[in-house]
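Input.
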Amino acid sequence: MPHSTTLLTTIAASLAAALAMGLLASRLKLPPLVGYLVAGMLIGPATPGFHADLELSGQLAEIGVILLMFGVGMHFSLQDLWSVRKIAVPGAALQIAAATAMGFGLAAAWGWPFGAALVFGLALSVASTVVLIQALERRGLLQSVNGRIAVGWLVVEDLAMVLALILLPALSGPLGGASAGAPGASALAMSVFLTLGKVSLFIALMLVLGRRLFPKLLWQVGRTGSRELFTLCVIAVAVGVAYGSARLFGVSFALGAFFAGMVMRESALSHRAAEESLPLRDAFSVLFFVSVGMLFDPRILMSAPLKVLAVVAIIVIGKSLAALVLVLAFRYPLNTALTVSASLAQIGEFSFILAGFGVAEGILPKEGQSLILAGALISISLNHLVFQLVEPARGWIRSRSRFARALERTTDPLAQLPVTVRAETLTGHVVLVGYGRVGRRIGEALAERGLGFVAVDENRELVEALRSRGHHAVAGDASVPAVLIQAHIARARLLVIAAPDAPGARRMVATAKMLNPQVQVLLRTHSEEEAELLRQENAGTVFMGEHELAVSMIRKVAELTA
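Output.
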């Protein structure tokens, strides 16, 4: 009797359809991601013809989520996560509340009962981490301050959804679900306590034991010299920790893999581990988007077009505006607010889980699940366009909005140097834009040599830390003239742009040279194209990472072979 080939058929059909539709999307100047979603629709149960196995496709997609979040964790340190806690935790909580209220109000207007409206609102409130990471990586923003805030924001959202998924089964009866009876107050309190305890225990184990165990394991395997064993170790840790966290601690696969990647980052071989897992991450992330497309029933677009439009408006516009207001309320720059808003203008995996739970428990009508899936598909497809609108929107708002200009003249104490700073320390100094991995080393070297500098960074917590150590620092977006003025660029000797942001760098250079024609400029970039463009514009001395590394190695080779 021949063995079953369902798994092989599902993988082959998914990848082949994704390749064909991805190529077509690229030809139409659309992101390939849109093609992957359409490919899922074509092989899904809602369209005629061949149907791939929906359950198997979902499980393959989970592997993609695990590998992708593991890779993100290896590029996202605990310090990065901690540095954005003051905006990510309250911001995510308030944004979830605002988006849930919008979804609840819409469902209530349709006449849905309380429980259905609540689950519907929650499903619309949480964005897809997978979509966000891909969008940030594609634009080189993952390691930026804005990228760290967006990722930290979604980590908090994921934790909130883990708690919601634990509590909802206990509340199924009161919410109108099929489960009989309502738990007592003590039983509900115990459920919350156990959930928080398990999540806290998992995080503690990862931070205490994981940080010591996994880097040593990776090092020992790396010493064997076997590439196969090394790749196997990386995948085994990612999938094993993700599965174990879900089974033992009730943490989602994605969150478990993310923390596994963060502790694995402590290893000196973490960059190699990220590179080794990259092909698998890319392949399985494609399967994730195909599986999303398979869930979508396009008939909802014909039967309830106005409801679909209202759902998309809440996801793309309502959530984004709520996030924009919240980030600005925390006194972060307009650029940060717009980036976080674009990051949240979609929904994904947790929304599907909540919708599935609501339908299974009889809380959410089947139409609600279809509307959530339609909102996910459309918002994910539009997310590329939303990100492209960030820069034009920022320019338009600043040029036309009195409120935006008032924000740039904020009375925020971190946006201007204290009046106690001596004037002589702000003459002939260095203005250092970006105090990340590169900028920090430059700042430390300047301090060791007794050279004065003013650091400019969008991360308010970082600026607070610098000031507590006695350094001059200003919080804000350096492409805004008012921020460079606060850094006293007019009397500076040197402008060092250590943040890899080419469009913003041009505005910084233009402002600096207008206020101080004699100022020297050093810029950092990541690509040959950007470097050449900046040189043609005489922006300053341009440094590209790979080129400078090669120059240093050549110099060392010449020294050792002389």
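The longest strand covers residues 520-525.
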